[in-house]
Design brief:
single chain, alpha/beta, Four Helix Bundle (Hemerythrin (Met), subunit A), 2 domains, eight-stranded mixed beta sheet, two-stranded antiparallel sheet, 19 helices, 12 strands, 52% helix, rod-shaped, binds guanosine-5'-diphosphate, binds magnesium ion, synapse, nucleotide-binding
Length: 654
């Protein structure tokens, strides 16, 4: 089987690369009657003395012999499971039984002895048979990964401890193993028995009627009766077998007793065939059997290749696109830096403008959110500032009185409007500043948005990313007090001079003090000492407040009913809020949003585009460099794997 080793080794690399399941080479099982030479055939295929052979019932449990290839120069290397190491460190070949766990066998005589012991342990020592297999693994640089199955021989008559239905039991046991379609059946028949009634071929036909996976092996060519030969059989005239019929000469019992080596046996076999069957010598013998099996296995491997090839192509395409998504390694640092900065700045502005490539669908973002802040959050807050909030009628009255000085005034003086109005306008400053804060927050959030979605390349360079975030953040931070100051000023401007000639103030100007003679009479009648009462009406004439003026209201202790046509303070505050509603967003746009938008690119370039920083900023994240390398390696391995497969397709074993 050694001819397959290089091919299978190469394939192994391919499998390792693509993570495919290793091609399951067919397992090879021997069937035949007792003592026909099954164990001998398997053994000569492995090329090592390791199986108990002999006359009588020797193989009494199935032996599943798994050959595991290990690299010759590195026999201490892990075996296929990655767990086992050759602890002997002496031999390049060793064996392990499933039932003895991790025990290492380097002496093949000991292996054979253990097979015998284990057979007796389960099947007793009196020819009993068991269907419980013995599992043995042989690690060697001289084998391919292949499973061989040695089976008890077909028998008719029970002997020793064997049950009456021994024939049925053994047949079932054999069928169980050879019915696996991935099993090549070596149907072994001794040449000194009747080939035409071969039990081996009979049982093989049961599971493989077309003979697609049955190879007939004729043993004991050397033991034919004098005067007879196997010519007819070997020519395929007796029984036709699709895959062929191969005659072999194994070691006799005497050879075994004399410890004849496998190599000697093969040499003698060759000499025998040359002498007895010169015309057929090249197509018979153990070596030819091994080559035929090689060819069968190779066919099997080739059958698996197209699928493997497809898998490689699919994977290669996947890794190719993965690799290109990681971007090329940086060649021109300054160009890359400039490009990334520009890209980020553009994305940032686009997000504000609403022209970004990646549009958030889950929530408002960027310019849309700023708009929302202006119109909904800020606008609504202004509307909800209660014009009367914090103002009691006594405040109003007190303001009026304080503004009129010592004289009783028939008209509410302008200065008292202003006083009241100022107090109310102050209440609008807080939401205005809050509006600035919200927009600032959103501008900060856009940075995140841009780095998350739009400028994925930035993820490759965590330091540059950090630096960009820092520059934008500090630019925003710088603009915050400036914008706040402006908004504060806007409110102050509104306060600085209140135009009472404005139409909104028309009502206020019409304030009048009505001295109702009728009322005057009434009150005079009731009490001349009565405290003057102020009543306030809204512009529809509804009473909104009434207060008693302090006794010291004025020197002229007249009784008066002040009846302003409207509430001056109320009216005037609500006429100021639309003003701020318009101007505050404008200020925020100009001093914060547009300013940042316009200066972002130059700010970034100014701070980051410095030759001293290039190297540091464009250091790729280790993770990314690693991933790119892995993808590139994988791609290379896949290309190599593809080449290996092409080569294997061309490989001819001989
Ligand atoms: P199994 O029961 O089918 O596994 O047969 P074994 O491999 O144990 O062989 C049975 C006996 O036949 C052993 O003593 C072998 O030495 C002997 N034997 C097997 N093949 C040959 C052969 O080709 N020629 C000779 N002379 N003896 C053989
Ligand atoms: Mg046997």
């Amino acid at each position: 089987m050694e001819a397959l080793i290089p091919v299978v080794n190469k394939l192994q690399d391919v499998f390792n690369t693509v993570g495919a399941d290793i091609i399951q080479l067919p397992q090879i099982a021997v069937v035949g009657t007792q003592s026909s030479g099954k164990s001998s055939v398997l053994e000569s295929l492995v090329g090592r003395d390791l199986l108990p052979r002999g006359t009588g019932v020797v193989t009494r449990r199935p032996l599943i012999l798994q050959l595991v290839h290990v690299d010759p120069g590195d026999a201490r290397k892990n075996d296929e499971s990655g767990k086992h190491q050759n602890p002997s460190k002496l031999s390049e070949e060793w064996g392990k039984f499933l039932h003895t766990k991790n025990k290492i066998y380097t002496d093949f005589d000991e292996i054979r002895q253990e097979i015998e012991n284990e057979t007796e342990r389960i099947s007793g020592n009196n020819k009993g048979i068991s269907d419980e297999p013995i599992h043995l693994k042989i690690f060697s640089p001289h084998v391919v990964n292949l499973t061989l199955v040695d089976l008890p021989g077909i028998t008719k008559v029970p002997v020793g401890d064997q049950p009456k239905d021994i024939e049925v039991q053994i047949r079932d046991l054999i069928l169980k193993h050879i019915s696996n379609p991935n099993c090549i059946i070596l149907a072994v028949t001794a040449a000194n028995t009747d080939m035409a009634t071969s039990e081996a071929l009979k049982v093989a036909r049961e599971v493989d009627p077309d003979g697609r996976r049955t190879l007939a092996v004729v043993t004991k060519l050397d033991l034919m009766d004098a005067g007879t030969d196997a010519m007819d059989v070997l020519m395929g005239r007796v029984i036709p077998v699709k895959l062929g019929l191969i005659g072999v000469v194994n070691r006799s019992q005497l050879d075994i007793n004399n410890k004849k080596s496998v190599a000697d046996a093969i040499r003698d076999e060759h000499a025998f065939l040359q002498k007895k069957y010169p015309s057929l010598a090249t197509r018979n013998g153990t070596k030819y059997l091994a080559r035929t099996l090689n060819r069968l296995l190779m066919h099997h491997i080739r059958d698996c290749l197209p699928e493997l090839k497809t898998r490689i192509n699919v994977l290669a395409a996947q890794y190719q696109s993965l690799l290109s998504s990681y971007g090329e390694p940086v060649e021109d640092q300054s160009a890359t830096l400039l490009q990334l900065i520009t890209k980020f700045a553009t994305e940032y502005c686009n997000t504000i403008e609403g022209t970004a490539k990646y549009i958030e669908t889950a929530e408002l973002c960027g310019g849309a959110r700023i708009c929302y802040i202006f119109h909904e959050t800020f606008g609504r807050t202004l509307e909800s500032v209660d014009p009367l909030g914090g103002l009691s009628t006594i405040d109003i009255l007190t303001a009026i009185r304080n503004a009129t000085g010592p004289r009783p005034s028939l008209f509410v003086p302008e200065v008292s409007f202003e006083l009241l109005v100022k107090k109310q306008v102050k209440r609008l400053e807080e939401p205005s500043l809050r509006c600035v804060e919200l927009v600032h927050e959103e501008m900060q959030r856009i940075i995140q948005h841009c780095s998350n979605y739009s400028t994925q390349e930035l993820q490759r360079f965590p330091k540059l990313h950090e630096a960009i975030v820092e520059v934008v953040t500090s630019l925003l931070r710088k603009r915050l007090p400036i914008t706040n100051e402006m908004v504060h000023n806007l409110v102050a401007i509104e306060l600085a001079y209140i135009n009472t000639k404005h139409p909104d103030f028309a009502d206020a100007c019409g304030v009048q003090c009505v001295v109702s003679s009728k009322r005057k009479e009434e009150t005079c009648e009731k009490s001349s000492l009565r405290t003057p009462t102020a009543q306030y009406f809204d512009r529809h004439g509804h009473l909104v407040g009434q207060t008693r003026a302090p006794p010291s209201v004025g020197p002229h202790n007249h009784q008066a009913i002040l009846r302003p046509c409207s509430q001056p303070s109320v009216r005037s505050v609500s006429s100021l809020s639309p003003c701020l509603r318009r101007s505050v967003p404008k200020a925020v746009m100009h001093f914060l949003v547009n300013h940042v938008k316009d200066s972002l690119q130059s700010e970034l370039v100014g701070q980051l585009y410095k030759s001293g920083l290039l190297n540091d900023l464009l250091t790729e994240s280790e993770d990314m460099a690693q991933r790119r390398k892995e993808a590139a390696d994988m791609l290379q391995a896949l290309q190599k794997a593809s080449q290996v497969i092409a080569e294997i397709r061309e490989t001819h074993l001989w």
